[in-house]
Amino acid sequence: MTGPRKMRVAILISGRGSNMVSLIEAARAPDFPAEIVLVLSNRPEAGGLAHAAAAGIPARAVDHRAYPDRAAFDAALQAELEAARVDLVCLAGFMRIFTPGFVEAWAGRMLNIHPSLLPLFRGTHTHEQALAAGVRLHGCTVHFVVPELDAGPIVAQAAVPVMPGDHPVALAARVIVEEHRLYPAALALVAGGRARLAEGRVMFAADVPPAEGALLSLCV
User: The Formyl transferase N-terminal domain covers which part of the protein (predicted)?
Assistant: First the structure.
């Protein structure tokens, strides 16, 4: 007797894919509700492609430089995702902005992890932004992707303290540890049907406690 069908997940990367690695490792567990069936990168030289291939996962490059515009590139991605019968997309350091049409086609089925406690510090250089702002807590956020950059409904967050005299590199190192814990946990919530996007907000199942659905970890 087989269990429920696992959600088929594709991971999109642009570099070494450290969050990709954490998702692949988590998905090895028999009770994890998702399976990683494809890794795509917009950069053929991305180090994460070799790691995915070594893990036995189909890994391919769709070089954005080979396409005349964003729409053509997004269409090529869409073809790869459809061919692999992907249910859900996870962005893991994917450094491309999608066309609104692509995002809308994956509404409620595309996640991203961002290295800040959104809505604070959108965009890049988030650790420098946090230090410049003088905040005492920083962290990371998993959210559904919407056309506006880093603005989608939040699935889960994890926080780390900002230490006196902190440096962006040291702060980033503490945040990445939490990212590697948070992303698999958030994916499990969504793939297991315990968190979903509805009417522009994330709805949690009744058995998801507030700590699991919002702030999953506080590193002190």
Answer: 7-187
